[in-house]
Design brief:
A hairpin with a 5-residue loop joins strand 16 (about 375) and strand 17 (about 380-385). The protein contains 16 helices and 18 strands. The chain folds into 2 domains: about 5-205, 3-Layer(aba) Sandwich (Rossmann fold); about 225-460, UDP-N-acetylmuramoyl-L-alanine:D-glutamate ligase, CATH 3.40.1190.20. The chain is of the alpha/beta class. About 40% of the residues lie in helices and about 15% in strands. Strands 7-1-9-18-17-16-15-14-13-10-11-12 form a 12-stranded mixed sheet, sandwiched between helices.
Length: about 450
């Protein structure tokens, strides 16, 4: 079992069906799921009054079980159900609740629990249910959503109704859903916890990026064994210097700038090779090459990108390289990680003929067509591999929304690749290290301060 997998609504139904096929009844599973949720709510309520809003499906059935468990624990519980239960398990759960059932709003208390609709919802709430939510939530000090807040699309995180209430806690049942990690819905969910119910690992499921398990260099390591990273600099060397600073702190043993001219701002611990790029890249000790930050977009930049694509054993493409990249420039068989923001992702999709609606689907389609691992960075960062693997990043500090932090991310990921990680693994490690560095850098940091914090983030993963 794993709590890190992220499932679509269809995958979740199939995973639950596997439990039913193995002999667990729907009602038994409901008792497990709702019982786990009730324990979270009991601790939060701490003996205070609770209002539970139940819908007609199995999410509403969970609500009846939660209400019963809370009342047994000594909480005063008000239960509201605007519609009668429609599933057998929900009817059984209601039958076990022998207290009164209201049908309209107006209830007040300390904790409000939303069990109106869960992950099966794909259309907006009808007006009366939306109004009921808007009425009840503000009457309570704390609001808890069971599985998902009602009115949030499970597979996309879309907010299906206007003026939905914000929740303090969302309890995912069985596994994370895409909505839990997708804006705009994620912004309404508050803290999130996953309640295990015995769901097995689902083949092909997306995964949530967690803390990597990294290791100190072996006792006999030297700079080349730890990885030589070449960074192709161009018209704006400041970006490549930022990437180099981050790369030095993310594990690579040797970081070298491959620049047309020496820059006086280059620190003494960064070697600069100003010779012809083809010659510099011919060094067989180079393990990976980063190209893009500060590269420029003129003919000279395109030539430098082409040389890197022809020569480097493994590449990370970022920034200007992504704008210049054409399908014919990619040579099959090389490990390549692309790190586009939304604008660069759109440009790549146009170049490679990819048409898809969500950024997640665009990243997956682009990875499949191009053969690159695609790290689509932003508030909803995701990493897609050509074989269909998908990883989602938990929210990172919003202070990362400043120029230069993408160069730091590119440097971290390229450093991990130089150390031997494949592009997908390097991307996942870099995303975590980048966010952890931001947490340690505090508010309103500069990109240079973020790069300096990378070594602290690395230490936290050892």
């Amino acid at each position: 079992m794993t709590s890190a997998q992220v499932l679509t609504a269809e995958q979740m139904r199939a995973a639950e069906q596997a439990l039913f096929d193995a002999g667990t009844s729907v009602s038994e599973l409901m008792e497990v799921a709702a019982g786990g949720a009730a324990e979270w709510i009991r601790r939060i309520a701490a003996g205070r009054t609770v209002t539970v809003l139940c819908g007609p499906g199995n999410n509403g059935g969970d609500g009846y079980v939660i209400a019963r468990r809370l009342r047994e624990a000594g909480n005063a519980v008000t239960l509201i159900a605007p519609l009668p239960p429609k599933t057998e398990a929900a009817r059984e759960a209601r039958a076990c609740w022998d207290g009164p059932v209201g049908t309209s709003g107006g209830a007040q208390g300390e904790v409000f629990v939303d069990c109106l609709f869960g992950s099966g919802l794909a259309r907006p709430l009808v007006a009366e249910h939306a109004l009921l939510l808007r009425d009840l939530a503000p009457r309570h000090r704390l609001c808890v959503a069971v599985d998902l807040p009602s009115g949030i699309a499970s597979d996309t995180g879309a907010v299906l109704n206007d003026r939905l209430p914000a929740f303090d806690l969302t309890l995912a049942l069985g596994a994370w859903k895409f909505a839990h990690w997708s804006l705009p819905g994620r912004a309404l969910m508050g803290q999130m916890r996953c309640v295990p119910i015995g769901i097995a690992a689902v083949k092909g499921a997306a995964q949530l990026i967690g803390r990597p398990r990294l290791f100190a260099p072996a006792a006999d390591s030297h700079k080349y064994r730890r990885g030589l990273l070449g960074i192709v600099a161009g018209a704006m060397p400041g970006a490549s210097l930022l990437a180099a600073s981050a790369a030095q702190r993310a594990g690579a043993g040797y970081v070298k700038l491959l620049a047309p001219l020496a820059d006086p701002r280059t620190p003494p611990d960064v070697v600069t090779d100003t010779g012809p790029l083809a010659g510099a890249l011919s060094d067989r000790r180079i393990a990976a090459v980063l190209v893009g930050p500060g590269l420029g977009r003129d003919a000279a930049a395109r030539e430098r990108l082409g040389e890197a694509l022809r020569t480097a054993p493994a590449l990370l493409l970022d920034a200007d390289a992504l704008v210049l990249l054409a399908p014919a420039m990619l040579l099959g068989g090389k490990p390549v990680l692309a790190t586009p923001h939304d604008g660069e992702l759109d440009a790549l999709c146009r170049a490679f003929g990819v048409i898809a609606e969500s950024r997640r689907d665009r990243a997956l389609a682009l990875a499949r067509v191009s053969g690159m691992v695609v790290l689509a960075k932003g508030p909803d960062t995701c990493i897609a591999a050509p074989d269909g693997r998908l990883a989602l990043a938990p929210p990172a500090p919003s202070w990362l929304s400043v120029a230069g932090t993408g160069d730091v991310l590119a440097g971290i990921a390229a450093s991990r690749m130089a150390g031997g990680a494949d592009p997908f693994t390097a991307g996942c490690e870099a995303v975590w290290l980048h966010a952890e560095a931001a947490r340690r850098a505090g508010p309103a940091f500069t990109p240079s301060q973020l790069a300096e914090a990378v070594c602290e983030a690395l230490a936290a993963s050892l």
